[in-house]
Amino acid sequence: MTALAAGLARATAAELAKVFSLKAWWLLALIMVAYVGMTAAGLAFFFSDLGAQLAGAGTGAPAPELDPVVAANLVYSSVTAVGLVIPLLFGALLATTEYRHGTLTPTVLAQPRRGVVLAAKGIVAALMGALYGVFGLIGSVGLGAPVLAALGEPTALGEPEVIAVLLRTLLATALWSLLGLGLGALLTSQIAAIVIVLAFTQFVEPILRLVASVWEWSASLGRFLPGSATDALVGAGILSSLNAIDPSAPSAPVDALLWWQGGLVLAALASALMLAAALTTLRRDVE
Questions:
Q1: How many angstroms separate the CA atoms of 21 and 39, rounded?
Q2: For residues 262 and 85, what is the distance between their CA atoms, to the nearest angstrom?
Q3: Is 196 in a helix, a strand, or coil?
Q4: Quick check: 94 and 184 in contact, CB under 8 A?
């Protein structure tokens, strides 16, 4: 093992020790399970025959029929529909906590190569992001599937398409954690990073996606927004499936990205943020 690899291994172990020594990681995990689980249970009811009949009772319109596999994918993809804020927030905290609590100095003294420090944080962010994906699936499958079964709907857990969605969900949450790390390393301010993460995921991007879907030219650009790329990567998403949920809704004016293209978009965004941080904030003197 070379000295660089050994240094990276030690730095990664140190970063993992920091993460698991604090309560934040499992508090975020509990929030992930509860938030995603409640959303998945609600969607499972909504997509069931009973939920569709109740929804159509007020208008007298016939309840739209949704393919069982599509419905199951939408339920289980609650992880990426509403839960991506958790790995994104974790990644941002992984970087900004060092600046907020002044622990960057001993970190740099232990490993003077700041690129190695950032790489170690990247490894930890990806691993923890995938772990938050597991927690999210515990919520979405653990609560969504029983609700579907209780209402007489197929859970479709044995379908290859559903299994692919579950596996790609883990990749998506890992990439979003890296996005958070890049953002946090670039901003260094924990408060600013938290505000931007919450505002972007909960308000800004959903609005941008809806507005972009109006025109063909804007829809072509909108495919490269992080949320749109995530839906393409995972293979399911509420905003990208509005026409399937409600046939009266206008169909998308352009085709979505392929799953691997969505993954490349997210990886490119994360890499760009981390490279920008490496060339700017990480070169500054440690106070």
A1: 30
A2: 18
A3: helix
A4: yes
pTM equals 0.92
Q: How far apart are CA 144 and CA 156, in angstroms?
A: 11
**What distance in Å separates the CA atoms of residue 204 and residue 202, rounded to the nearest whole number?**
7
> Taking a C-beta distance cutoff of 8 angstroms, is the pair 54, 46 a contact?
no
CA distance 36 to 139: 6
Predicted local distance difference test score (pLDDT) of residue 247: 62
Q: What is the number of other CB atoms lying within 10 angstroms of the CB of residue 30?
A: 11
Q: Is 186 exposed, middle or buried (0-12, 13-18, 19+ CB in 10 A)?
A: buried
DSSP state letters, 31-49: HHHHHHHHHHHHHHHHHSH
Per-residue pLDDT reduced to its tens digit, 65-120: 788 999 999 999 999 999 999 999 999 999 999 888 888 878 887 888 888 999 99
Round to whole Å and give the CA distance between 63 and 52: 5
pLDDT single digits (tens) 216-226 = 888 899 999 99
* Dist. CA 273–CA 180, nearest whole Å: 9
Structure token pair of residue 245? 């949920």
CB-based burial of residue 162 (10 Å sphere; 0-12 exposed, 13-18 middle, 19+ buried)?
buried
Cβ atoms of 37 and 141 closer than 8 Å: no
Tell me which residue has tokens 């499992």: 26
Nearest to 268 by CA among 204, 175, 180, 137: 175
**What distance in Å separates the CA atoms of residue 88 and residue 94, rounded to the nearest whole number?**
10
Helix (H, G, I), strand (E, B) or coil at 61: coil
- Does 285 score more than 60 pLDDT? no
